[in-house]
Amino acid sequence: MNFHSEPNVFVSHVYLKVADLQRSINFYQQVIGFQVIEQTENKASLSADGRTPLLTIEQPENIHPKQPRTTGLYHFALLLPSRSDLAKVIEHFIKIGYPLQGASDHLVSEALYLADPDGNGIEIYADRPASTWKWNHDEVVMSTERLDIESILAEGDGMSWGGLPAGTLMGHIHLHVSDLQKTEEFYSKGLGFDIVTRYGGQALFISTGRYHHHIGLNTWNGTGAPAPSENSVGLKNYTLVYPNEEARKGTVANLNQIGAAVTQENGQFIVKDPSGNQILLSI
């Protein structure tokens, strides 16, 4: 099943603020493997297939370094089409000597973790077949185990790394939030997501269509963590795609019902979660 197409609701695009646009373009092209499909003096749009934007990076005026212990981006996650694609990425990172922050087997997926030059978190992962995921009623079983790098590399097809494969998607986003209870109401009753895993009273993983998660939410920066300043490096917004206009209108009505302020700009519906993370509601 394709968890990133209708009738599911999923993350399609992430928009980041960076301190040095050219430095970030170099990183996202040479280390991650994106293609630049559009560029202005202070902004660039990045793609895996040369057509579909997955990530936008912008250098605003008077940008400040990433602020610690605030809400915002924990990481965005690029979903590769296959395990052999993950093998190519591992080989690439070994070749260029780029430092990873972690590598984990989550039972439902296998993942690498790193950061861009501004400290924005990135996950690059491949899903295990959904038929192998284990569920306890409505909760998916996930864990954090040692990644078997050797087993992944053995699945390499002998082809060298050539950048992100065309089928790469924005698999999910993981956010720092300030209050899990308010966050759960907003994302479940407002945006229409299902809770699929609770992790230690400090994190929620949510999805539609029984994906392991389209969004992760945590209070690891502290309950009550403040939102970063407007000019801080980090997340500007991310985009959720709804299957049709009727579904989006229903979501806007649900958000209004729980007291979330939805605005409209250039035909786009925009809302902020209780921690100040801005979301574009698209179709």
From TrEMBL:
Keywords: Metal-binding. It comes from the Bacteria. Residues 10-127, 169-283 form the VOC domain. Pfam families: Glyoxalase (PF00903). PROSITE patterns: GLYOXALASE_I_1 (PS00934), VOC (PS51819). PANTHER family: CATECHOL-2,3-DIOXYGENASE. This is VOC family protein.
